[in-house]
Structures are given as C-alpha cells and as structure tokens.
Amino acid sequence: MNNPKRFLAMLSAAITTLSLLPVYHANALEEGETFTDNTITYTVHDNMEVTVTSCVTGVTSVSIGEEMDGYRVVGIDEYAFANCTNLKEVTLPESIETIGEGAFYSCSSLTTVNLPETMTEIPAGLFYYCTALEEADIPDSVTKIGDYAFQYCISLTEADLPDGVTEIGTGAFQYCMSLTEFEIPAKVTALGDLCFVACASMTTLTIPDGLNSLGSLPLVGCTALTDLQIGEANATYTLQDGILFTKDLSTLVCYPAGKKDTEFTVPDSVKTVDYYAFSGCTNLKRITLPDTVTALNEGAFSGCTGLSEVNIPSAVTTIATSLFADCSSLTSFTIPPQITTVDNYAFYCCDSLKQIHVPDTVTKIGEFAFGYTESTAADGSSASAPLPGFVMTGHSEKAAGEYADANGITFEATNFNYKLLITIIVAVLAVAIILVVAVRIMTSKKNQPVTEETDSEEAEDEFPSDYQSILGNEDDQT
Hints:
Low-confidence stretches: 13-26, 451-478
Largest sheet: 6 strands, mixed
Radius of gyration: 43 Å
Strand content: 15-25%
C-alpha cells in the first residue's frame, strides 16, 4: 500500500470494531455453560442447541434469530426477561419450541411480542404484570392457557383464543381490566378458579355448550357485565332473564353486576345463592328471597353499595363470611331468631349501619363481623378501624356482649340481669341489717339509765317497814 499511515489507521479501526463485537465461545463451551452477546445470555445444551437465559434489564427491543454462533435457539427459559421494565418489543424465531414460566414477568412496557407457531401452551405467568400489553396474538397450535398467564395485563383489550384450546388455568385473565368481551372456546370443559376476577370492563361472556364448571368466583369484580350468552344444549347452566342458574334452577350462580334493575325477586325454585352471586351489583336496592332458600353463601351480596332492603329466609341459620360486606347503603337490618352464627366480616364496611340487635340465639360472632370499616393511612395503605357511632344491643352474657366487650363496641344490654339484681338485694339487706343493729344499740344506750332508776324505786318500795321506821325514828330523834 502506498500510504502506510492510511493503512495503519484502517487496521486500527478494524481492530477497534472487532473488539466491540460479541465474543462467542460456542465451540469451546460445554453443556450448561453460558455466553452473551452483550444483551442476551444463552445457556448451552446438547445437540448444538441453546436457550435464552436472561436479558439486560435496560434493553428496549430484542430480536432473537434462529441461530446464535452456530447453535440453534430452541427455547426461552423461565423468567428470562423478568423485570425488563423498559422492554417494549420482542421478536422470537419459529425455532422456539418452549417458553418457560414467567418468561416476560413484569415487563411493564411490553406492547408487542410474536409467539411462534410451535407453541402448544401459554405457560403460567407468561405475561404477568405486562401492563402495557394491549393484544395477545395466540398461535393456533396452543391448547392450554396456564395459571395467571395474563394476570394484571390491565391494557389488554382483546384475547381471542384458538379453537384448539381445551384448558384455561386459575386466574388466567384476572385483573385484565380493559378486556371488553370474551368467548370461551368450545373444547373447554372447565375454567380454573378466579379466571376473570376484576375484569371490570367486560360486558359480554360467551359460555360454550360443553362447559360444566366455571370454577370458583369466576366473575367477581366484573362490574360492567350485562350480557351472558349460553346455548340451550349446555347440560350444567342455563339463563333466565339474563341471570345464570344451574340447569335445574336450584342455584343462582351469577346476577350480572352491570344490570340496571333496582329490584329483584329470586325465583321460588332457588335453594342456594352461590358464592358472590350478587357481588358488585351496585344498582340493586332491594332483593327479595323466597323461603325455599336454605343457603346464602360467602359474599353473596358483598359490594351491593345501593342495597337497602333484603330479607333472610327462615331456613337460613348462618350469616356467612362477608355476606353483606361493603353494603354501604344498608341503614338497618334485623337478624332473625333462627340465626346461630354470624361469620367473619359479615357486615364489614356497612358504614350506614349504626346500630344492630343481636338475638340471644346467636352463639358465635366472627372477627370484624360488626362495627368495623376500612381506613386509609397517609401512605395509601388500608386497615380495619372501628365504625364511629356504632352501637350493639343484646344479651350481656352471650355472644353479643362478649363480642362488644372484646372489640370495645358501645353496648346496650337488653336482658334482665339477675346477678346484678341479687347483688343489689344483698347490698340492701346488708345495709338494712347494719341500720337495725345500729338503732338497737343506740336505743339500748339511751334507755339504760331509765331502767336503773326504776329498779331503785322498786327496790325502795320493797324495803322492809322496820327499816323505814328506823329511818323515821332517826328523823324524829333529829
């Protein structure tokens, strides 16, 4: 080269460029060892394959190829991108065969990710707390949605599941507060518990004919729900006036919380009001229950903030846990005489209920059942606090009195206190006895001299005449 300086400059630039490139050790690494491209860390496996193990937390975009330094990229490990809060976009190759649990856990800026057609499962917690994710494009190859897969994806507006899905896990779409509608695939026979809890924007849910279990508390917090759809061929559930019942109409499963009606009368066929069946029905002001009802399950009327009137059927003996929690418009309530148990939080945060009478038949009262509300501290945390002005009445020596005493609640006894009466009578008798004794003593002291004088006079009268004559003779002599 004619210009040595130029050659040296070019050589120096080339060396500098090479030093900035990732240093790969693939050919020298054994199974289980790792290497990095300065953004992503890979773990080596046999058969010249690698999986993505971790990522630099500050990265905003990641594109993964099918190969890395001669290795075939076949998987994303558990929590590989966890807490990469700046990560917005991920591109995955079709060579990916498995994605581990929680792989994108708490990637709160993630908006776009393509899932390869090789996937058969959305693993547990895959997109947990991906709060910016608006749409989930799930491949047709997927047959299972894992537990909490999309939990807290609060911006997710659509989640169209492929027809091949047969299983939806616990809490899979819990707190997807922007999800507006959802159709459960036809092959799903059972939902995991808490599946749609707090999907506050969901207005429509379509239930397939083959579904035989909605799981526990599936629709709690779905406050906008107005439209439940289900085919007549479903053997487990049915709709009547838009309200979900078991097929035989013996259990009221769910009253859609978004309905605008202010009054509702439960049909005579109903024996059980299911867990949280009316929860969050803020428009309802009056609910009438027939005497055919024998069980009101936990939280059945919780969060019915407009409810001011409801009756307890004669066959119901327990006011269940959180049955009327957060019924803030309830100003009065009569506990019927057949009730024996009032469970925990039964009337928690019933802030308008300032007084309640507990009959003698109640033998058990649970924690925070009466007279408690929720207060918010300066740091935003909440805690239970006594309800100001709350008064409880009842038998002082039974469950009511014991609960009031243990919780520092103002209490007015309605029973006749025989022990107090006996105490008062004994005290009065004691005072009376003391007074009588005192009077006798004083009278005795007052009358003692009079008694001696009388005795002297009687003695003088009894002197012998001879003695008187002697005295008289002495007088005469004098």
